[in-house]
Design brief:
about 375 residues, alpha/beta, TIM Barrel, eight-stranded parallel beta sheet, 15 helices
């Protein structure tokens, strides 16, 4: 069975005034194994918890006596206009959360004027997602088969995607104890729409003491991806190229030297190297190393409009949103995802005005103080 046992009612969604409220609705309706697949992290989940603590330590220094009567959340992301400095993060297998999966979340993104990032492991094909009218980016895992990865890039271009994001922090999927305990596997009707074969794969082979999804990615992903491969990908497409999963300033500088168009400062939401630095703690150093040569986005732990403002004040051009939108999708399909995006938009507009910022450019000039 895919999707939640039942959706939250319109009344319940309306009563949810924060992303955390929506998460509680989603947890109530999702099967335990799917809930753990979304919420869980790797190892002892040290980095998963640290992401949140690190964001809460960032305090903003608001400015006063400024005209914020028309505070605007509009932004430019990778050369495209957006109504928020945010995009939907690439997330695999969204039909686990709702029968419409990626289509519902993409329509919600289109309604709020933010890009939707299609995952290599999407459970709906990129062509169907692009047909929703959403601005689409395509996330690429470096597959073992060179022909297959080249075909995916061409497919993304033909579908009208506006950027390619290469995930660089997953040579293989980290051990995620919640999935191991659950013997997590995909139901038969949820597949990776972009990968052959179309039918059941190792991702569907449930077993005790292991994650079938991890086994499938180990089979499909190339663990030897290097800077040479980044250069190859750069030569394959004229679309803006973004590296997702950069935390070290040295890596950021080298990526900028290679001519990438963007970086996503990310620890994969605490789902890869456990003990990795919180993304927000690495952000300022990456921004300095990029030195304006490419855009810098951030994900991992963003839950509110205030979090978005924190990232902007530390130099980010925008953020990627993951789990909060998945909880919205699970709780109420497209309506649930729209509700979460609406909450974040209102929170960001409120935070901008209260911080004395009339626009995103002003937000990026705010000072911050780190609590001990």
């Amino acid at each position: 069975m895919t999707g939640p046992d039942r959706e939250a009612s319109a009344r319940e969604l309306k009563a949810a005034v924060t992303a955390d409220d929506v998460e509680r609705l989603a947890r109530r309706v999702l099967p335990c194994a799917v809930r753990d697949f979304v919420a869980g992290g790797s190892g002892t989940e040290t980095t998963l918890a640290a992401n949140r603590r690190a964001l809460d330590r960032v305090h903003l220094v608001p400015r006063v006596l400024r005209d914020v009567s028309r505070a605007s959340t509009a932004a430019s992301l990778l050369g495209s206009d957006a109504l928020l400095p945010a995009a939907v993060a690439p997330v695999a297998y969204q039909r686990l959360l709702h029968p419409e999966g990626e289509l519902a979340l993409a329509r919600a993104a289109a309604a709020h004027g933010v890009p939707f990032t299609v995952s290599t492991l999407s459970s709906r094909p990129v062509e169907e997602i692009a047909a929703t009218g959403a601005m689409t980016w395509f996330q690429l895992y470096w597959l073992r088969d060179p022909g297959e990865r080249r075909a995916l890039v061409r497919r993304a271009e033909d579908a009208g995607c506006a950027a390619v994001l290469l995930t660089v922090d997953v040579p293989w999927m980290a051990r995620r104890p919640r999935d191991v305990r659950n013997g997590f596997a995909l139901p038969p009707d949820v597949t990776a729409a972009h990968l052959a074969p179309r039918g059941p794969s190792r991702a569907h082979d449930a077993s005790r003491g292991g994650s079938a999804v991890a086994a499938h990615t180990a089979q499909a992903f190339a663990p030897a991806v290097t800077w040479r491969d980044v250069a190859e990908l750069r030569s394959l497409t004229r679309l803006p190229l973004v590296l997702k999963g950069v935390l070290a300033a040295e890596d950021a500088a080298r990526a900028a030297d290679l001519g990438v168009d963007g970086l996503v400062v990310s620890n994969h939401g605490g789902r890869q190297l456990d003990g990795a630095v919180p993304a927000v703690d690495a952000l300022a150093d990456v921004v300095a190393a990029a030195a304006g040569r490419c855009a810098v986005l951030m994900d991992s732990g963003v839950r509110s409009g205030t979090d978005v403002l924190r990232a902007l004040a530390l130099g980010a051009d925008g953020v990627l949103l993951g789990r909060p939108l998945l909880w919205g999708l699970a709780a109420g399909g497209e309506a649930g995802a729209r509700h979460v995006l609406g909450l974040l938009a209102r929170e960001l507009r409120d935070a901008l005005g209260l911080a004395g910022c009339a626009d995103i450019a002003a937000a990026r000039r705010l000072e911050t103080v780190r609590a001990p």
